[in-house]
Queue: 2 jobs
Job 1
Amino acid sequence: MTNQQTLMTKPNMPDHDDIYEALIDAHDGLSLQQSMKLNAKLILLLANHIGCKDILLEAVEQAKP
Amino acid sequence: MSFDGIPVYKKKTYKKSAELSGAAPKKHDFIVVGSGPIGLAAALAMARKGHKVIIVTAFDFVPAGSKGICYSKEALDIFDQLGVGERIVDKGVIWNVGKVFWGESTDPVYQFDMLPVKDQKNPGFVNIQQYYVEDYLVDALEKMDNVDIRWGHKVSGIDTRDDGATLTITTRDGDYQLDTDYVIACDGSKSTIRDLMGLDFAGRIFEDSFLIADVKFKQSRPSERWFWFDPPFNQGRTALLHKQPDDIWRLDFQLGWEVDREEAIKPENVAPFIKGLLGEDTEYEEDWMSIYTFQCRRMARFVHGRVIFAGDAAHQVSPFGARGANSGLPDIQNLCWKLDLILRGQAPESLLESYNIERTQGADENILNSTRSTDFITPKSETSTIFRDAVLEMAGEHEFARPFVNSGRLSAPTPYHISPLSTPDGTEFAQGPKPGHVCVDAPIVQDGKDGWLLESLGNEFTLLYFGDTPPQTKIKTLVLPNTGLASDRYGANTSYLVRPDNIVAARWAHANTQNANTQDVERAYKRALGEEA
């Protein structure tokens, strides 16, 4: 769990292109529904890793259209 | 035997009321309306405190049908205070463990324990048919000479005023009136009193229906709650298996919203579900079949002048989580000590408002939990279904995903975060129930005898004191040593002022002083009686 108590919105990691590519490649050949499930799993895995309700709720707010 | 389509467990005797035979009308302190578990518990609580009790109920029988079968530890503790707890536990099926299965796998994806803190008198849960609970409550009431159960007396009118109400009662011999200072309305989710008073009951309807099949069969299975998502015998939907006394098992199958209720409940249509779950060759007898839909809603207020609503009349939840009767019983436990003291002139009438404040919080927490469970079981959108399936797919391999699995968060006591009766902590506590929380049980020794902490708290205000030199106070004091499980759970050198409903009103740590301060205790006591803000 991170010690940060608010959502980080400034760059926070190297290798952006690698990570972006991995995210896109993971969906290769998947139907929209399979992709949605993959994304749901990713979100749940990362949510648990972050482990902080305040940060997650802030992220949900930021992601809303 | 049935009455208006409601099957009868035990017939009761209608009697013509004295009022219809020319007896002079009397004014009553209070009238209990309704003979479900909540109305009967209210009547018994007040009768045991020495009040004259009249219950009016449209039924002249105890209805059959297992109905609500799961009774929580908190409910059992309340039944203990009413003197029927041990009979219910002795008859019931004790269980603590719930398992959740997904698809064809016989390994659970998730399991939970409803009694994480061991060494308490009562188990996490007991399963027992609702008619046994009602029957035991009626039995206890019928043994008391200050109780008048008016079977077959239906409320048909209510005229409220600032200091009471007049109820019109309809019977087969005609109508009569009851004049009363208070009304305790426990007349269920279709509350007549609520309707007659034109009061709101707003909430959410869920578009799903479920089949209950209570069946009798002899098969050795653990007394655990088993829940399936997407089992082969109800694909894409859910199912539940739970044991009751007398070799009866509760089977529950999700059917979806578009369902022909009359068709679905026919034995030939129910059989494939039952055989699918139990195995083709299982022989069983049908006990009770029912199809239900549900809503989550509550009244905006539970206290309307001198009319007080409790149980399903005040709040309704989905059955996932066993939060119906298990939240109605704490309503009664909360209400009855307050009404008792008000009627004795030992507390101001304004104390009743704390019932409204505390129990609407309880209802909100129950509705929140029940709604969340329902959204997991009956996902309301495609995305919601995808997230649910993502959780279930990962739960087998990854421990982190298991707590997301929601097949019903089973009833647990709802703390009162906001209460005019609670005194905030003055110091830090490492353990123990906070003000507004229910007391945890522990084995204790009193006068050389083994007993339980909750039993010793009894049904009255108690200062629970850990240490050697309790403060001088007129409040009943229970002194316990600074060693042992109770002290581990509450903390050595502490005092807790506990209300008659086992809720902590205030607490003090006094490691560096000789005594909990008598003045502080008395002040907190007055506050808990609604005398001081």
Job 2
Amino acid sequence: MIPSSTQRLSGWGRYPAEDCKVFRPEKRRSVHEILDSGQEPHYIARGLGRSYGDTAVNGGGGVLSTVRLNRMLSFDEESGILECEAGVSLAEILEVFLPRGWFLPVTPGTKFVTVGGAIANDVHGKNHHRDGTFGAHVLDLTLLTPGGDVIDCSPESRKDVYWATVGGIGLTGIILTAKIRMQRVESAYMKVDYRRLKNIQETLATIRETDAQYQYSVAWVDCLARGGALGRSVLLLGQHAAPNELWPGTGDPFGARARKKPGVPFDFPGFALNPLSIRAFNGAFYAMHPSRDGKIIDYDSYFYPLDAVNNWNRIYGKRGFTQYQATFPTGKEDGLVQLLERLSAASCASFLAVLKRFGPEGKGLLSYPFEGYTLTLDIPMREGLLAFLSDCDRLVLQYGGRLYLAKDMCMSADSFAAMYPRAGEFRKVRRELDPKGVLSSRMARRLRLAEDTTS
Amino acid sequence: MSDRAKMIVILGVTSAMARALADEFAKAGHPVILAARDDEETAFIAADIRTRCEVNAIPMHFEAQAFEDHESFVNSCIESGEGTIGGVVLCYGFMDEQPKAQSDFDIARRTFDVNLTSAISVLEKFAAHFEARGEGFIAAISSVAGDRGRQSNYIYGASKAGLSAYLEGLRNRLYHRGVHVTTIKPGFVDTKMTFGLPGLFLVATPQQAAKAMYKAIVTRKNTAYVPWFWRYIMLIIRHVPDWQFKKMKL
């Protein structure tokens, strides 16, 4: 018997939660021993648990935690290529390499994700319009298949396996190692221009005009504003700052260090977040950020504002929340406006929503981003939410849009099939790599990417 | 040569606590010799430390129960070419379920061979080397389980009690030669040994434990409980009289 621990696991949204048998190998070889043991009917890899929904939840099966397989294997100072195991976190990479002048090629809004998770969800950041997804900067990876083979794959060799694994939510195998190309930066600070924008039309137009000039671009939208102010926002346009742009007296340009984190010591009661308190917060945010140019901010505050609070998901209370992210193709901005209207009318009580323009679609078969506009917001769980979201899903579909697997927890298998036209191709590769269905997750069964063996 | 640059030997580096401790020494600028039985894993850990800390990390093969190889192992550490050895930390241990150790003598013997006999074998050789130089340190991970014999874990506990007594005597002997010996007694640490076990409380991460161990070693503590509050937990447990202790379900 390989030791495991029964834990009630959920995604970062804390809904849904299921009892899973957690394995935590500390040796590379143990990964295969676990998959081969037959102790559980199926398994899914899990990193730091920052996917919001049920991507890395596997009730009635095994969860293979990769957090102790976090060895960095080599780094080339010339090319900036880092080879590491899948359990290495982006936070660890920054801690080691930012002081040496290297930054992540792409980072999501939290640095507490693993490299394996970043690849399996093919995550994106504020620079997607320019630099694409995380997967676009992975040179190659090694994958342990359920059959026990270790496949070295890349955009050049075993392409089928590679593009099924990038964005493949852990269903093609266990990612063991990856080579990532880092980007050189001159400081640990960002130079940010702010644009305060009156409504959704002005927001979309300004994003279109400015995107080409900035590496990073994201708008914080007050989604409680209605009528003529619908979609009012603050657009943050960022670049890595050069040493001569920093405040005099900053000292070491790489001196910005990760902040100490306060935690949320308890679950907030349900009434703590209500349309009034959130309206006040959103209004204050909008008022406090007039248009201005060239503000210097440390990387941690710029990229990871929420990481400053440990367990920030607890502010939504025990019932949890979902993060709803929908992308609409260019030319279908009407859908986005309608979704905003619907959310605003329902007073879904979200803090700021995030709006960004995506660049061209990548090659990952289940990769999320494609050219268009993506809107993201937190919605606390409540009675009737699932039905409301299902209505939203229909609207998204109607405009040719797509939902993000790293965040979704409830869309139907039919919606998924319509939103992800390459899912059939994915299933084909998966059948070859995992004919016995050793890999599965709640999401995989829900979206009919894996057999539901319980029914 | 400054104390900073001296090489540190970590025995049993494939445990999570030992790996984190090697990381602490490497972050402080020490080159390290990383020794364990599993060559593949040792090589991964050495690569990790070289990549993260930009110091040399030399993987070496070491088997606790191969007593006859210990002398040549210690010699290759001394002759590794990375300067003099500043100290050695013994981090490995073996624990199986108590009922198995009771019924299967091979498991009981293995517990003692790994935890006590091999420690005597390898540490005496390092001791002789440090004694001749009149400097250096020896540290070893014992256990709070050795402070009191409990029905649930007394064979492992007895081996660790023996290790603690051995280290105490070694400390006494080497004190007069300028060599320091630290006994480390971890409480519950979130390692492979404890993963999934019921009834644990106040569990420290390997990183927290390693930071405390590093500090205890460089400040030349004699016996360090890790985390520190285990000193007081064990103080109470040690003072429960035998007539009472034997009745308890521990």
